[in-house]
């Protein structure tokens, strides 16, 4: 077991290189480092400010702008200006159903389990590619400000992010040319920024309350031996300071007797901006009072608090639920940490303090606290803090082969050992009774480029339709570096297990070479993975569309049938050509064209069912 640092520019082992901490946020992102005086600092690239709005704009030529420059286009070119991409990372269309209206750009809605894609111009982007654009900008700013190449980073994610969202964040980092040493939970980073958890003998339970512009979450963490464990999380991904602004806007519309239905978008925008200004002012003063044209913008702190009371109570209810899920009482919490711009509102602070019965930590700027903590975590990984015990880590990722020869990582590189992780899989063919499980080690997206450790068959799965069996695959890596791979089909209890020693025959040189290869090939690897995934989706769609017209051609006119076939042929041609963007475009066109037919079929089924019933 070892931890290896490499310089991407020279390919040599390096100990002293700066590792940055990145807070990749829904609204804003920022990058921090540890300065020569050992203090964490947010990087301020001259004149550009600390916060980089997490916004990407594409012009007609497909060139990108990121941050404040991209924000300008939110109003003038909303269709090609992508914001809140973090909400889409690692998510499928099903996951975001009902929230499409939040996004002003085009989401490709295939109505299934595949990952969300975004269309800008005639190109299709995954949230991974868009997040990579933001990370590239942060990397460039850090390099400019620090005057040195920045190739390694720690990136934070919300504690509630699942495996797929974490993997997507890791991929985005790689695509941006960053070696992502660790994905760290945001509440863990915020605690580290306050020095909580840095003493290995410390045992504490803490609550991290994070209220941003559009999201709220609370996490309960247990710290023991320098390890942070998430006991529970709760929150609402559509609640935040923007709701406070909206409440103020409605109040002013009322007070000024404006007709809400007849407001033009310019005035609406002005009301919103003034509302945010008033809200911020009321964090330090008791009254906001301005007049512009015929409109009075007046608000006192007490009224503001009444306006936001229900929303704040909602966050406290989440805290209650999080405590309940962690099986803890409020008195078990030793520390409370505040994160997110909206915790600057004194009423929020007071309510949180009253709920937990203690003063929360709020000394550090709540917009920066997560990035600062990520920088501290980076410094720990760099081995610069001798007072902190560095745990053994696994030097290369461990995973299994999935569809199209892709590597599915189950234990990521740099994970502390001992560790345990698992994921659920299913069959792809009807009546499949065996499942081949191939275990690999390495960082490349295609298993053929990685090191094969073992292969075994899970036999005796009862015959079921494709997708029905539930096969849990668990990786258990013990402190001696022995990996146990367990596969169990949950419906039947069929089970198989093997032991492997992943480090057997693995020299430091091999590890180093595998890491360098993974980085030099990162871009082509991710592109290949995306193509394989697009192909999988395209092929599935051809299959479903063909089955559909085979069974239901009677509901289509001959022209519709002909055109469906033309779309299918076009998608087939794209599949054999192998261009990801064209495959996704043709798949989208086929989907769009056939969607009304599926609806027609449903309507017919409903009216048929109604006919048989007597309605009094
Ligand atoms: P974040 O998503 O963490 O960057 O938080 C942004 C939210 O914090 C926005 O809703 C801002 O309006 C809000 N915010 C920023 N500064 C203040 C302040 N001084 N008082 C109250 N809310 C603020």
Automatic annotation (TrEMBL):
Sorted UniProt keywords: ATP-binding, Chaperone, Nucleotide-binding
Protein origin, superkingdom: Bacteria
UniProt xrefs under SUPFAM superfamilies: Actin-like ATPase domain (SSF53067), Heat shock protein 70kD (HSP70), C-terminal subdomain (SSF100934), Heat shock protein 70kD (HSP70), peptide-binding domain (SSF100920)
Keyword rRNA-binding: no
A GO molecular function held by the record: ATP-dependent protein folding chaperone
InterPro entries per UniProt: ATPase_NBD, Heat_shock_70_CS, HSP70_C_sf, HSP70_peptide-bd_sf, Hsp_70_fam
Statement: the UniProt record of this protein carries the keyword Hydrolase: no
PROSITE patterns: HSP70_1, HSP70_2
NCBIfam families: PRK05183.1
Family: Belongs to the heat shock protein 70 family.
Protein name: Molecular chaperone HscA
Organism: Pedobacter cryoconitis
């Amino acid at each position: 077991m070892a931890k290896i640092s490499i310089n991407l520019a020279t390919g040599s082992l390096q100990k002293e290189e700066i590792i940055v901490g990145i807070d990749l946020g829904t609204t804003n992102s920022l990058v921090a480092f540890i300065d020569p005086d050992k203090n964490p600092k947010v990087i301020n690239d001259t004149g550009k400010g600390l916060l980089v709005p997490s916004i990407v704009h594409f012009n007609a030529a497909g060139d990108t702008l990121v941050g404040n420059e991209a924000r300008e286009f939110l109003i003038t070119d909303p269709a090609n200006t992508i914001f809140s991409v973090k909400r889409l990372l690692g998510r499928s269309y099903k996951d975001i159903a009902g929230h499409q209206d939040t996004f002003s750009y085009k989401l490709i809605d295939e109505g299934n389990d595949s990952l969300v894609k975004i269309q800008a111009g005639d190109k299709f982007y995954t949230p991974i590619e868009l997040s990579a654009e933001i990370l590239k900008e942060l990397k460039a700013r850090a390099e400019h400000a620090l005057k040195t190449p920045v190739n390694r980073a720690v990136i934070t994610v919300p504690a509630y992010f699942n495996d797929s969202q974490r993997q997507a964040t890791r991929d985005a980092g790689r695509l941006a040319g960053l070696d992502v040493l660790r994905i760290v939970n945001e509440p863990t980073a915020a605690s580290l920024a306050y020095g909580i958890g840095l003493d290995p003998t410390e045992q504490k339970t803490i609550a991290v309350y994070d209220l941003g512009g559009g999201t709220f979450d609370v996490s309960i963490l247990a710290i023991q031996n320098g390890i942070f464990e998430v006991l529970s999380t709760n929150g609402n991904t559509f609640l935040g300071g923007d709701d406070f602004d909206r409440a103020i806007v409605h109040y002013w519309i009322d007070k000024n007797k404006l007709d809400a239905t007849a407001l033009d978008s310019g005035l609406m925008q002005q009301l919103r901006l003034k509302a945010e200004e008033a809200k911020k002012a009321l964090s330090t003063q008791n009254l906001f009072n301005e007049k512009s044209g015929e409109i009075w913008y007046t608000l006192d702190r007490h009224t503001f608090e009444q306006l936001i009371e229900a929303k704040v109570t909602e966050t406290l209810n989440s805290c209650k639920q999080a405590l309940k899920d962690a099986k803890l009482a409020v008195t078990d919490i030793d520390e409370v940490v505040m994160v997110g711009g909206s915790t600057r509102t004194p009423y929020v602070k007071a309510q949180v303090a009253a709920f937990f019965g203690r003063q929360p930590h709020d000394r550090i700027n709540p917009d920066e606290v997560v990035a600062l903590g990520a920088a501290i975590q980076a410094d720990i990984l760099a081995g610069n803090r001798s007072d902190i015990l560095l745990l053994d880590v696994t030097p290369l990722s461990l995973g299994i082969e999935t569809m199209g020869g892709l590597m599915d990582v189950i234990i990521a590189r740099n994970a502390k050992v001992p560790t345990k992780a698992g994921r659920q899989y299913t069959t792809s063919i009807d009546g499949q009774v065996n499942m081949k499980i191939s275990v690999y080690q390495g960082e490349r997206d295609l298993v053929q480029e990685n090191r094969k450790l073992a292969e075994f068959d899970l036999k005796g799965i009862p015959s079921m339709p494709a997708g029905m069996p539930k096969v849990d695959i668990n990786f258990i890596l013990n402190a001696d570096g022995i990996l146990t791979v367990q596969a169990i089909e949950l419906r039947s209890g069929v089970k198989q297990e093997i032991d492997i020693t992943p480090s057997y025959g693995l020299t430091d040189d091999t590890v180093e070479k595998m890491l360098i290869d993974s980085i030099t090939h990162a871009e082509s690897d991710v592109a290949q993975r995306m193509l394989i995934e697009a192909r999988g989706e395209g092929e599935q769609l051809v299959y479903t569309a063909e089955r559909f017209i085979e069974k239901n051609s009677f509901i289509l006119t001959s022209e519709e049938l002909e055109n469906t076939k033309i779309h299918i042929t076009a998608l087939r041609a794209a599949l054999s050509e192998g261009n990801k963007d064209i495959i996704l475009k043709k798949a989208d066109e086929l989907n769009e064209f056939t969607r009304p037919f599926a609806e027609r079929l449903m309507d017919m089924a409903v009216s048929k069912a109604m006919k048989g019933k007597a309605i009094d």
